[in-house]
Design goal:
The chain is α+β, with helices and mostly antiparallel strands. The protein has a single domain, classed as Trna Endonuclease, Chain: A, domain 1, CATH 3.40.1350. 38% of the residues lie in helices and 28% in strands. It is built from 3 helices and 7 strands; from the N terminus they run H-H-E-E-E-E-E-H-E-E. The strands form 2 sheets. Strands 1-4-5-6-7 form a 5-stranded mixed sheet, sandwiched between helices. The protein has a two-stranded antiparallel ribbon with strand order 2-3. Strand 4 (65-70) and strand 5 (74-79) form a beta hairpin. The chain is globular and about 45 Å long.
């Protein structure tokens, strides 16, 4: 399965989850449920994945974590805020660059409509 196929499953599942539960829950709740729903569909999902990196001889192991990594190809950052800001988008793009992964999503469960809270970001896809 390629990144776009995985992404389609992630987005469809997130929309269904948001329709069923609505906004207002903690990000960690959406993360746990979304991970389970994706696993139930046969996808490999890891939660709170460390993103190590090195800068000028300094190694950072645990400072950054991706909320979900699906099939070791797609990074998913979950939010439960009223409005996404540019810092959220920059965070995802940085994670993609540090890991060399090509596709990532921000899924904001805090808004009234899930479609307004989906941000797709690519890194050389």
């Amino acid at each position: 399965m390629n990144e776009n196929e995985i992404g389609n499953i992630i987005v469809a599942t997130a929309i269904r989850l948001h329709q069923e539960l609505g906004p207002g829950l903690l990000e960690s709740v959406y993360e746990a449920i979304l991970a389970k729903l994706l696993k139930d569909q046969g996808l490999d999902v890891k939660r709170q994945v460390p993103i190590p990196f090195e800068y000028e001889g300094m190694r950072f192991e645990e400072e950054f974590r991706a909320d979900l990594v699906v099939e070791d190809k797609v990074i998913v950052e979950l939010k439960s805020v009223e409005i996404l800001n540019n810092a959220h988008k920059k965070q995802l793009l940085t994670y993609l660059k540090l890991t060399g992964k090509k596709l990532g999503y921000i899924l904001n469960f805090g808004g009234a409509l899930m479609k307004d809270g989906i941000v797709r970001s690519v890194n050389k896809l």
